[in-house]
Amino acid sequence: MLTRRSRALLIAFLMAWCLALLYLTHHTSPESHLSDQDLSDLEELKRRVQLEGDDDLLLNDQVAQEEFRDAQLNALRDSYGENEEEEQHDFENIEHPTPPPDAKIVDNFDVKHNFKVVDPRAEWVPLPRPSQPSVPRIKFVEEVGSRKSSDPYAKNNFNVHASNKLPSDRKVPDTRNPMCRKRKYPEDYPPDLPSTTIIFTFHNEARSTLYRSVRSVLDRSPPELIDEVILIDDASDDPEQGKIVEGMEKVRILRNHEREGLIRSRVRGANAAQSPVLTFLDSHIECNTDWLPPLLEQLHKNYRAVASPTIDVINMDNFRYLGSTSGLRGGFTWSMQFQWETAPLKGKSAIDPIPTPMIAGGLFSITKRWFDESGQYDLDMDVWGGENFEISFRTWMCGGRMDIVPCSRVGHVFRKQHPYSFPGGNGRTYDKNTARTAEVWMDEYKQHFYHARPSAKFAAVGPLEERTELRKRLNCKSFGWYLENVYPELSVPGRDMVGFGQIKQGMQCIDAGAGTLNAKLAVQHCLPQDSDKQEWIFRNDGTIKLQDGHGTNFCVALDKDNHAVLHTCTTDPPMLWTYTESKQIRHRETGLCLTSSKKPQLRAFPCGSTSNENERWAFTK
Ligand code: UD2
Ligand code: MN
């Protein structure tokens, strides 16, 4: 039996021990070096992001997931069709297409001499390149002439005030799978990893995001692996826009006096680079811890490999850094819309590189040798868009490969609209760039593209000989080979599916509602093509799958009240449907037909019990 005094002593001792433990855990935690701002960001991130069994950061919180989806979807789709006014405008002009401006020679950058390094050390803006590191650093970057009261979205379509408020070297949470952290550079990597030149192209990029992008490269990469950081200022309105990064170590800036678009600008950067590896990045990114060695390792294994990091999300409204779902790869629809999808699991580890049929386009490493050998980019593509399709088809079909590397993470600000103009209209530019890709690379399958994107039929594609000759010279395989071997999961119209696109009744469409598991479907006014809630594939196996571009795997099923709902796709009887001769969608198990008679609800009733019109559905594609 303890006396009262010794009990009190024991309690006091235990309390002191707990306090000491608490102090120690707090002060030795990996987060202890973070500022208050970072800590509150991190807490917020933890609140929003649930730690899963394998400790991987996943976006399971619905708000975060929606945010992520919104960001990824809206930013990675071409904005063609998003802006009805613009689409209308382009459409009216289709009869009289204005020819794209001729390629011009800008300074000594001759776009026709694409395979020659014209003058690798040429500087368009003569800036000093000090050998000293750029300290002291600029902690907070302001826009020139920006006022606190002005609309923070006006220039960049993201909240530039939120970016300005963050330190230029802010910490970001390490979003990698913990298994990645066990591999240390240099010990656990090949001793002769190739070094790289980083290439950023930008047009009117905000100074704070531009600066932070470069800073994150310099701060989070082993210095011996970075030879140079080349920025191509693609004729920003203010010729001094890039001055903010002037004098940073290893930085060189080239300026286009005329707008070339990101595709020709990247080639210009590549031609000026002298490293064995080129690494392309967008100008509003933040590299995460140890992002570079895992990319270079891929190229070290195979000089024909293209390696893309896993792209995290920097929220465009508050600049919070969010870890994105792992295990995704890039795919696309026949209208040439890039989309994320779940990579088929082939029994590999969660940190193995994921072969991807397509890259998002902006962030990747490639050897200079393979970039040049395989035809760089198609220089007749303008401004933005389509080049990721071209380089992906070309790489796979001509003997290379593409992977998304889970242990390399880079955050990117996804936006909803382009902040810049498209000389010639963005619908037309996207049509031209994708039609050039289809003409050169897609063989007989291009008909499915034109069917899904009819406006591309009218695109002024320009000369194609150089690219078709390239394909011959490299002895590339067919598009059929690509589909069979690289992307067998892509359903081919007429072969694997009953129909795809929107499922329509006049101006009303079947809509995925919340788009989440068990969400009730609805009959809604049709949205512009390629929306994430109204695109479906009715497959030959009888399943109707939502094509939302976010890597979900939801199919149409019936709940107990015969409401149409989203379930995880299987080929179990409750998920199987038949598209009848009279255009009904009949549930095989119950024999009921989908009807709009209770709209906006989408429900199933005995076939023929409601008016024919309410039961008749058409596919747009
Ligand atoms: C995605 C890619 C982007 C590119 C594009 C398709 C990611 C994260 N981003 O769109 O890199 O492949 O798909 O073309 O995968 N820019 C110029 N000149 C121009 C227009 C843009 O230099 O005329 C710059 C721009 O400042 C930015 C980069 O090119 O740094 C990409 O443009 P974006 O951010 O508008 O493209 P994004 O992310 O929507
Ligand atoms: Mn971008």
Topology:
Elements: H1 4-28, H2 36-48, E1 50-51, E2 57-58, H3 62-76, H4 84-92, H5 160-165, H6 178-181, E3 196-202, H7 207-220, E4 226-234, E5 251-256, H8 261-272, E6 277-281, E7 285-287, H9 292-301, E8 305-314, E9 321-322, E10 328-332, E11 338-342, E12 354-355, E13 364-367, H10 368-373, H11 387-397, E14 401-413, H12 426-441, H13 446-452, H14 465-473, H15 479-485, E15 497-501, E16 503-505, E17 508-511, E18 522-525, E19 536-539, E20 544-546, E21 554-558, E22 564-568, E23 577-579, E24 585-587, E25 592-595, E26 603-606, H16 612-615, E27 618-619
Parallel strand pairs: 3-4, 3-6, 4-5, 8-14
Antiparallel strand pairs: 1-2, 6-13, 7-14, 8-9, 8-13, 10-11, 12-14, 15-19, 16-17, 16-27, 17-18, 19-20, 21-22, 23-24, 25-26
The chain binds uridine-diphosphate-N-acetylgalactosamine and manganese (II) ion.
Uridine-diphosphate-N-acetylgalactosamine is lined by residues 75-76, 201-203, 205, 234, 259, 261-262, 265, 282-283, 311, 360-363, 383-385, 387-388, 412, 418, 420.
